[in-house]
Amino acid sequence: MTPEPSTADPDTVIRLDGVGVRRGGSDLLADLDWTVELDERWAILGPNGAGKTTLLKLAAAEMHPTSGTVDLLGERLGRVDVFELRPRIGLASASLAGRVPPDETAFDVVRSAGYGVLGTWRERYDETDDQRASGLMAMMGVVDLSGRRYGTLSTGERQRVLLARALMTDPELLLLDEPAAGLDLGAREDLVELISELAADPDGPATVMVTHHVEEIPPNCSHAMLMRGGRVVAQGLLDDVMTSENLSATFDQPLELTSRRRRFTAFRR
Ligand SMILES: Nc1ncnc2c1ncn2[C@@H]1O[C@H](COP(=O)(O)OP(=O)(O)OP(=O)(O)O)[C@@H](O)[C@H]1O
């Protein structure tokens, strides 16, 4: 049987329609509609337990919804082989960071991404794999750490190595779950700048970044979603969504949001 031609918009990278995720009698996500286009760069914010990581797992094809539909890169979850889909999606997350074998070299952590494994897998990689891994590590400023064991790297160095790994397959969609968690001020600023540069590349992947802190939103982000209790408080263009009112509703306290040169800060009123 010939497969039906896809009628999906080729520029739509993520499409969630009426999505719910239910576990143990509670709604982790409910009634979620969300569309991400290829040229969009999203920041997702919300308090602990809001459902941010669950949302990212759906977007990474690591989880199926309980209700509604999830379309990723023109393919519907449940009808597509997720192992074919995943190499098209770059993911850097704390859970991934914790699963990297500490003895692997930083270079192998990056290079093996193309094969969907962590650490060394094949005896021989193509020369193009080696070149791409080195190029990305140089771009992230960690090429000098290529031979170092992952377990000996600092948190900031690990985040950069994982970012290089996430880009190794030249993904159409890049998902970052709290990339700046645990970084000192300087390392955070370096990473925010790096992600902002990636976001500014018109040929770069659609990007979705989960963060706890408004200070970590890269200046080149175009869109934002604020979540609370598995539901959307506000979503859309960054400037429309990032208001004191929306942020206060999201964190259930009176907050004042200010911005300067497209960087945000928030205080309790
Ligand atoms: N398998 C499960 N069964 C029951 N509840 C779950 C399950 N997995 C996650 N949850 C709950 O779902 C909610 C959303 O979790 P999720 O990890 O998506 O939140 P989050 O916004 O990423 O939180 P954080 O900011 O703390 O990382 C949390 O309250 C969590 O305890």
Q: What does this entry look like structurally?
A:
The protein has helices spanning 52-59, 82-85, 94-99, 106-111, 127-139, 155-167, 185-200, 238-241, 244-251; strands at 12-23, 26-37, 41-45, 67-72, 75-76, 89-92, 173-177, 206-211, 223-228, 231-237, 255-260, 263-268. By secondary structure, the chain is of the alpha/beta class. The termini are far apart. It has a single domain, classed as P-loop containing nucleotide triphosphate hydrolases (Rossmann fold, 3-Layer(aba) Sandwich). 29% of the residues lie in helices and 29% in strands. The radius of gyration is 19 Å and the shape is globular.
Point out poorly predicted stretches.
1-5
| Largest sheet data | 6 strands, mixed
Number of helices: 9
Any idea of the CATH topology?
Rossmann fold
Shape: globular
CATH class: Alpha Beta
Pfam family, one: ABC_tran
Protein name: ABC transporter ATP-binding protein
Organism: Actinomycetospora rhizophila
InterPro entries: AAA+_ATPase, ABC_transporter-like_ATP-bd, Metal_Ion_Import_ABC, P-loop_NTPase
Short description:
This protein has 9 helices and 12 strands. With 269 residues, it is of the alpha/beta class.
Supply the key terms.
single chain, 269 residues, alpha/beta, Rossmann fold, 9 helices, globular, disordered N terminus, binds adenosine-5'-triphosphate, ABC_transporter-like_ATP-bd, P-loop_NTPase
What layout of secondary structure does this protein have?
Blueprint: E1 12-23, E2 26-37, E3 41-45, H1 52-59, E4 67-72, E5 75-76, H2 82-85, E6 89-92, H3 94-99, H4 106-111, H5 127-139, H6 155-167, E7 173-177, H7 185-200, E8 206-211, E9 223-228, E10 231-237, H8 238-241, H9 244-251, E11 255-260, E12 263-268
Parallel strand pairs: 3-8, 3-9, 6-7, 7-8
Antiparallel strand pairs: 1-2, 1-4, 4-5, 9-10, 11-12
Residues 23-24, 26, 28, 46, 48-54 line the site of adenosine-5'-triphosphate (ATP).
